[in-house]
Design a protein that fits this description.
Blueprint (H helix, E strand, L loop, with lengths): L23 H5 L10 H5 L5 H11 L10 H12 L5 H10 L1 H9 L7 H6 L10 H18 L3 H13 L9 H13 L5 H9 L2 H6 L13 H10 L8 H10 L3 E4 L9 E4 L9 E3 L2 E3 L3 H8 L3 H15 L6 H13 L4 H10 L16 H12 L3 H10 L25 H16 L10 H9 L5 H13 L4 H9 L8
Antiparallel strand pairs: 1-2, 3-4
């Protein structure tokens, strides 16, 4: 009897690159390795990390006059003042014009957020398991970023979280949730009011040890960071100023729970306060913490440092001295109103200059929020997305240290880039929102103002031609472009 022929079972069809996680090799491979056949290798040419980073940096200066179009200006504004826009949102703001759109974004308290508030999961810090609460508040905030009708409110909350930092390594999730609400309600208010409030905020008190600051045993941590990071910066105070201001912040403590990480209430206890005379920056008196804040906020060094931080966050790094001086004047003339400075930034020529266009790399929070704005998610999806941010280098409510997160090109390396692309892949496979485009031109117009390199456009067109009708795949490709990594 003849041997039966050996039948080799057919291998299961392999998912195309846009439907499966992307390996580092696929992204970094050269044409010699055959990676030209994969869409991502077309979008990200280069055989080592330095070439990828150079490519991202080069793209920030490659589009002279890109912001001459009002629609491009509106899209730029929405990326900086919020978390990007869907095509419908872009249409709506573009119909207003740049001036009216800017006013609408700044006057966000006049815009109802009722629809979002109705969709958000209920957070009850007092009755929640601490471990579960971490994921819940991270997802809750990410959902706010993606779905808010008041994007600047959330963008400023993110700014303050990165400047007046507290983190889960010391403070508890209920405390961070309470602090997050404080930042939201005071986002564009007076800086002195915000600093006075955050000095008594339980998360900050635990994070920088104000809670242990007692008469006779002053803890200098908060007093030092208040000057070094939050106001004047190094070089504008002495060690004696640190010691004396620490005495001024005595008297405040926490109550309402047996463990400090669980309490969300602070109170003043007179017997813990050092009522003696204190000398701070050449002035002597029975100063309280509020008095210290009132002496630090008006200083020119504070005005210039905060103005530079705000401009860098919204426009580009290393702002020119004349810009910083102008914004510092605005800050001081408005009696320390942050909203006045932000308004001035959004109306400056520099904000819409070639130098500002794509000058920033999206932080993980910005990238994930904009992606979910385009693809949609439910409450569990937002929690999962917040968790996925960790390997991108940013965990909400858990900055690496009191100086906050780094920025710029530090967000992009071989590992974080792959995580970003894999996240886009996962988000588009679970897309729950109307897809933003029917064609490459529509897609790039919505995502990146239609301004892409020849290499990117050819890669997207090749994909569209090879896979007609696969709009989810095309959206993934758009989210995976180098251009989309930039803000």
């Amino acid at each position: 009897m003849d041997d039966a022929p050996v039948v080799t079972p057919a291998a299961p069809p392999r998912k195309p690159i846009w439907k499966r996680p992307v390996s580092r090799r696929a992204v970094l491979a050269t044409g010699a390795a055959g990676a030209a056949a994969t869409a991502l290798a077309v979008l990200w040419k280069g055989n080592d990390l330095s070439q990828i980073l150079d490519h991202v940096r080069d793209l920030t200066h490659g589009y002279q006059g890109a912001l001459s179009s009002e629609r491009a200006r509106i899209a730029h504004l929405l990326r900086r003042a919020g978390f990007g826009a869907t095509e419908a949102e872009l249409d709506r703001y573009a119909a207003m014009g740049t001036t009216a759109a800017t006013q609408s974004l700044l006057s966000y308290q006049q815009t109802s957020n009722a629809a979002l508030e109705a969709q958000l999961p209920t957070i009850d810090p007092a009755n929640a398991n601490n471990a579960r609460l971490v994921g819940a508040i991270q997802g809750w905030w990410l959902q706010r970023m993606a779905q808010t009708e008041r994007p600047l409110e959330e963008k400023m909350t993110l700014f303050w979280h990165g400047l007046l930092t507290s983190g889960l390594d010391k403070a508890g999730p209920a405390q961070l949730f309470t602090q997050n609400q404080l930042f939201r309600t005071t986002a564009l208010g007076n800086f002195d009011d915000l600093l006075k409030a955050v000095s008594k905020d339980p998360a900050m008190m635990v994070y920088l040890d104000t809670e242990t600051n007692r008469k006779g045993k002053p803890n200098e941590n908060y007093a030092r960071e208040l000057m070094e990071l939050f106001t004047t910066g190094i070089g504008h105070y002495t060690e004696d100023d640190v010691r004396e201001s620490a005495r001024a912040f005595t008297g405040w403590t926490l109550s309402g729970a047996k463990q400090l990480r669980y309490t969300t209430q602070s109170l003043f206890v007179p017997r813990l306060y050092d009522a003696g005379q204190k000398t701070f920056m050449g002035k002597t008196g029975n100063f309280t913490g509020d008095d210290i804040v009132e002496m630090l906020v008006p200083l020119r060094a504070t005005a210039e440092r905060l103005s530079a931080r705000l401009f860098t966050f919204f426009a580009y790094g290393n702002p020119e001295a004349e810009i910083v001086h102008h914004l510092a004047d605005t800050f001081q003339n408005s009696r320390y109103n942050v909203g006045a400075v932000v308004r001035e930034i959004f109306t400056m020529d520099a904000f819409y200059s070639d130098k500002a266009y794509r000058a920033l790399v999206k932080s993980p929070a910005e990238l994930v929020a904009q992606t979910l704005k385009l693809t949609g998610a439910d409450a569990k999806g937002f929690m999962a997305a917040a968790n996925a941010m960790a390997p991108m280098g940013q965990v909400l409510f858990y900055p690496p240290n009191v100086a906050g997160w780094p920025s710029g090109s530090s967000w992009i390396n071989s590992s974080t880039l792959l995580t970003r692309i894999n996240f886009a892949n996962a988000a588009t496979r679970r897309v729950a929102a109307p897809l933003p485009a029917q064609s490459v031109d529509q897609l790039t117009a919505t995502l990146v103002d239609g301004n892409v390199t020849t290499n990117t456009r050819e890669g997207l067109q090749a994909f569209a031609a090879a896979h007609p009708g696969d709009q989810a795949g095309l959206l993934f490709m758009g989210l995976a472009t180098p251009e989309f990594q930039l803000n």
